[in-house]
Amino acid sequence: MLLESVAADGFRNLDGKFGCRAGLNVICGENGHGKTNWLEAIHLLSTTKSFRTARLSEAIRFGASNAIVRGEVRQSDQIVRSLQVILEGNKKTLTVNGKKETVQRYLGQLHAFVFNSDELEIVRGGPEGRRKFLDNGIVSIFPPYVQTVSDYSKVLRQKNKLLQEARKNETPVEKIEATLEPWNEQVVSLSARIHKARVRFVDRINEVLERKLFDREEISIRYASSLEGKGDLDDYESLIAERLALRTQAEIYSGYALIGPHRDDLEISFDGRDLRKFGSSGQQRSALLTLLIAEVSVFYEQQGEYPLFLIDDIDAELDYRRIGKLLDFLKGKTQTFVSTSKESFVTQFGGEAEVIRIKEGRAESTA
User: 93 in helix, strand or coil?
Assistant: First the structure.
């Protein structure tokens, strides 16, 4: 797939349109003029989500009634699709060739992975960011999985509400067990699907992981279920049903669901050491890039085409040695979009790139 052009109106400070090329596209300009906003617009067009906020209404320009992002995507020599995302308040409308589509049907038209400072939470932060990394990767190759994750989140919210009410009202365990039973049945079913999908995805990442792409240390990953050591993970449904029954009183006491894949983690190590605790800033950046590149490779194996690769403020997060290795690896594979405020980057890496210069939200010129 190839994003041939992107246009925006009312999306943050953006206005106008620019063309894109296969290979490297460099979005450059002074800070505060909208470079990251254009990357965010491309990400929205690809995933229907922002990588900066969960509240899409925040991306609508102040005083505007809506925000519109459009793109022309070439699927093949004969097929070009027009994608559009319209934001109005907290509502988003998705269209393909002018026809409204659901999120599930829209996803798959264009794919993008992003590297920015926030993504470093995957290797630096708590388990939630790593679970999200896995779930987003699975959705990229199997869009219906987004419904499984959504359903699980809804069931957890309802179960947590019941547990908190039971704690507050000091409801007897026997009574709350009957109330929780239908919700726990859904937890068992959905948890099994999530566990299976994540374990398989980690296996696929491990198959393609370039373990020493940037540094001498070897990167390794492992899916760590919160039920490890509690029984037979190969019979996950029986195991989680058993643990739910055993931990009902503890869940009532805490007021929250304590059993399920929302407690799992992805262990990331370098030369056998915990990257989050012992890795340097540079090693953590390298590890994240290595994981993202592996995601790109898994996507290619599954779909037979490469996704877009978006890198925000590239030379603030990576030194030129890592940038050079990264761009060499991506060359001939992904359509890559990077943002920079430094002309030295354009001089060193922009020779074969489309250079898009941004001023006050508009693409002023290309070079």
Answer: strand
In this structure, the answer to whether residues 84 and 223 fall within a common structural domain is no
- Coil vs helix vs strand at 359: strand
Rounded Cα–Cα distance for residues 12 and 9 (Å): 8
288 shares a domain with 263: yes
25, 314 Cβ separation under 8 angstroms: no
Kindly report the number of other CB atoms within 10 A of residue 23's CB atom.
17
**What SS3 class is residue 28?**
strand
Q: How far apart are CA 21 and CA 312, in angstroms?
A: 18
Alpha-carbon distances, residue 278 vs 6, 130, 265, 268, 286 (angstroms):
41, 17, 17, 11, 14
What is the tens place of the pLDDT at every residue in 136-173? Answer: 999 988 988 999 999 999 999 999 999 999 888 887 77
Q: Nearest Cα to 190, choosing from 135, 245, 230? A: 135
CA distance 298 to 277: 27
| 29-44 pLDDT tens trace | 888 889 999 999 999 9
Compute and round to an integer the Cα radius of gyration of the chain: 22
Q: Are residues 43 and 136 in the same domain?
A: no
Q: Which tokens sit at 296?
A: 């790109």
Are both 256 and 317 inside the same structural domain?
A: no
184-207: string of b/e by CB count within 10 Å (b at 16+)? bebbbbbbbbbbebbbebbebbee
Identity (one letter) of the amino acid at 273?
A: R
126: which residues sit within 8 A by CB, 6+ positions away?
A: none
Which CATH number characterizes residue 294's domain? Answer: 1.20.1050.90
